């Protein structure tokens, strides 16, 4: 019998009733992300041609100069989200401040805020290595009808209503959760349709991959150094395998499928870590937990941290449940390092 292939569009409609709030709104929101992902995918895929095309055509059809891809991705996602009358504010890695979005009649009635890293792993663009987009969605906490405020963005990760990422890789995939597990959709570029390819994604409970920028070893806190020595020790299923792409989205995606841990710790060079709590760590933590994995700062659950500013950084340990637990045990030997 021929199997039925479910598209992302169908899936969104199917799952609408699972959502605890007015379902149509979140569906529209995910739909606009789906659209933006396709547009950015198209651009990412021809990034290598920019120099060639640019020689004769440095100005695009709108008469704008060619932009860097991260600024471009930012604009595409912004526009897609603004047009739907759902979102009242967006915070992005690319903008210092959040932007306010008005509703239908110039009102403040839209209910959701979106936080995003429009292009993650941007240093990999020039070398044809996978990059991604990360997004995180909350209901506003201030009353509708009033302008969105910073506190609408500074919510704990545990308050997220949806989160996801797009990985622009050998295939382009959109992976997201609304709190009922994690599902992955692969883009068929020939017809521009995402199909459900990875239903109910789950981390293996244990894994054998560790992903960290080990070049910074001398700058790491002792707990991380100890854990790395543990990973490298010959015993049982160890030494583990080391894999590090340098695109959080891609490293995360591989580890979720194969089993592994991703670590971006504090270091003497980056005393609070490098990754951003609101639009990198929190959405990935939500997806990780929904996929039966875990995410911590080495000491506490990421999604329990009360944010204090839009672009704040956080150390990040994320992956298979037992691996994160083990790493936390090593960190716990140095309780002073919890005060970063
Ligand atoms: P971005 O491209 O959005 O600035 O993020 C890059 C991040 C993350 O994707 C990656 O895992 C990490 O930076 C790599 O940092 P190092 O080069 O320091 O390892
Ligand atoms: Mn990033
Ligand atoms: Mn980025």
Report the uncertain regions.
52-63
**CATH class term of the largest domain:** Alpha Beta
CATH architectural category of the largest domain: 2-Layer Sandwich
> What Rg, in angstroms, do the CA atoms define?
20 Å
Count of distinct strands: 13
Biggest β-sheet strands, sense, barrel: 8 strands, mixed
The name CATH uses for the topology of the largest domain is Fructose-1,6-Bisphosphatase, Chain A, domain 1
CATH superfamily of the largest domain: Fructose-1,6-Bisphosphatase, subunit A, domain 1
Quick structural summary:
The protein has nine helices and 13 strands.
Provide an overview of this structure.
This protein is an alpha+beta fold. It has 2 domains: 8-198, Fructose-1,6-Bisphosphatase, subunit A, domain 1 (Fructose-1,6-Bisphosphatase, Chain A, domain 1), CATH 3.30.540; 209-338, D-Maltodextrin-Binding Protein, domain 2. The protein has 9 helices and 13 strands. The protein has helices spanning 8-15, 23-45, 50-56, 69-82, 150-153, 222-232, 248-258, 277-290, 321-332; strands at residues 87-92, 99-100, 112-120, 131-139, 162-168, 172-177, 183-188, 193-198, 209-211, 241-242, 260-264, 293-296, 316-320. Strands 2-1-3-4-5-6-7-8 form an 8-stranded mixed β-sheet, sandwiched between helices. It is globular, with a radius of gyration of 20 Å. It starts with 7 loop residues before the first helix and ends in an 8-residue tail after the last helix. Residues 52-63 have low confidence and may be disordered. 2,5-anhydro-1,6-di-O-phosphono-D-glucitol binds at residues 93, 117, 120-122, 213, 246-248, 274.
């Amino acid at each position: 019998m021929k199997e039925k292939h479910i598209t992302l569009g169908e899936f969104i409609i199917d799952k609408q009733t699972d959502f605890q709030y007015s379902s149509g709104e979140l569906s529209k929101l995910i739909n606009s992300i789906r659209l933006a992902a396709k547009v950015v995918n198209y651009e990412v895929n021809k990034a290598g041609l920019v120099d060639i095309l640019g020689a004769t055509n440095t100005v695009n059809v709108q008469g704008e100069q060619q932009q860097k891809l991260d600024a471009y991705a930012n604009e595409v996602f912004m526009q897609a989200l603004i047009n739907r009358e759902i979102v009242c504010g967006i915070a992005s890695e690319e903008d210092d401040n959040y932007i306010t979005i008005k509703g239908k009649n110039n009102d403040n009635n839209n209910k959701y805020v979106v936080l995003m890293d429009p292009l993650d792993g941007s240093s990999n663009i020039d070398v044809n290595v996978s990059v991604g987009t990360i997004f995180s969605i909350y209901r506003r906490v201030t009353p509708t009808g009033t302008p969105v405020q910073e506190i609408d963005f500074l919510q704990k990760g545990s308050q997220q209503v949806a989160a996801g990422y797009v990985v622009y890789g050998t295939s382009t995939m959109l992976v997201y959760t609304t709190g009922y597990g994690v599902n992955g959709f692969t883009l068929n570029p020939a017809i521009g349709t995402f199909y459900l390819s990875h239903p109910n994604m789950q981390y293996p409970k244990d894994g054998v991959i560790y992903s960290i920028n080990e070049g910074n070893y001398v700058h790491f806190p002792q707990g991380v150094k100890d854990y790395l020595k543990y990973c490298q020790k010959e015993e049982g299923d160890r030494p583990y395998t080391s894999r590090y792409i340098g695109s959080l989205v891609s490293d995360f995606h591989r580890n979720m499928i194969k089993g592994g841990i991703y670590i971006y710790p504090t270091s003497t060079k980056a005393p609070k870590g490098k990754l951003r709590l609101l639009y990198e760590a929190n959405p990935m933590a939500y997806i990780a937990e929904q996929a039966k994995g875990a995410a911590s700062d080495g000491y506490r659950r990421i999604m329990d941290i009360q944010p204090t500013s839009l672009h704040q950084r956080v150390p990040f340990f994320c992956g298979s449940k037992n691996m994160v637990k083990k790493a936390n045990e090593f960190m716990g030997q140095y309780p002073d390092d919890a005060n970063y």
